[in-house]
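User: I'll paste a sequence; please echo it back and then give the predicted structure.

Assistant: Echoing your sequence first, then the prediction.
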Amino acid sequence: MDDIGRVVVAAGHLAIKQRGPRWAHASLCVLDSVFSINAHYERHTVPTCYRYAAWAGISVPLSGSAQLPVPDEQPLQGFVTHIQTHGEEDFSSKVLQNRQRTRANRDAPLKVEAARQYAELLVSHGIATLADANALFADLDKLRAIERDLAGVAGHGSGARLAYLWMLLGDDNRIKPDRMVLRWLQTVLQRTVTTVQAISILTEAAARLSYTPWELDHAIWNNQRKG
């Protein structure tokens, strides 16, 4: 049996579900993508997003795909302005109440700085809303140009953060090959798997299973998260 077949068989033990409610504002997608790296998701990342939503007056932070866009979606420039107005130190401490850094180094940039840079670069390319992001996914040349810019932001790592951003913004064909997904694949295949290999294997396995890559990726992540 080849690698794809092994993954397909192992996926039979996962609880694979359709995508549920997701962030209804690009700013929350940016925050989630940046603050989720090397952090406990429920304990730190989700509360960070909700604290910003409450502070910014975002009344509907989550929504089902069929209800998007929400009528009062916050343009991404508003998020940028909030950080610029308050400064990264105060914004981290007082608004987000999360001073995590992009690396385990006290001199590394704050994650909020990476979030601001992500948002600024997206705005500079004309991406202000979820609808803008979804239009971007059909323009591969523009997408590659934006990805080159975003790859220069502190904490880029292997590229999982950027792939996760696109997933949050609505691209169901993306895989976030973080350490939990790679660990699951290593267990299933009994060998180390690179990020590039993980993307290829899971994308093909999802197609064989008639699920989206997002659905398979998320099922693996949930399985590993629950131990």
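The chain has a mean pLDDT of 94. The beta strands are 22-23, 62-63.
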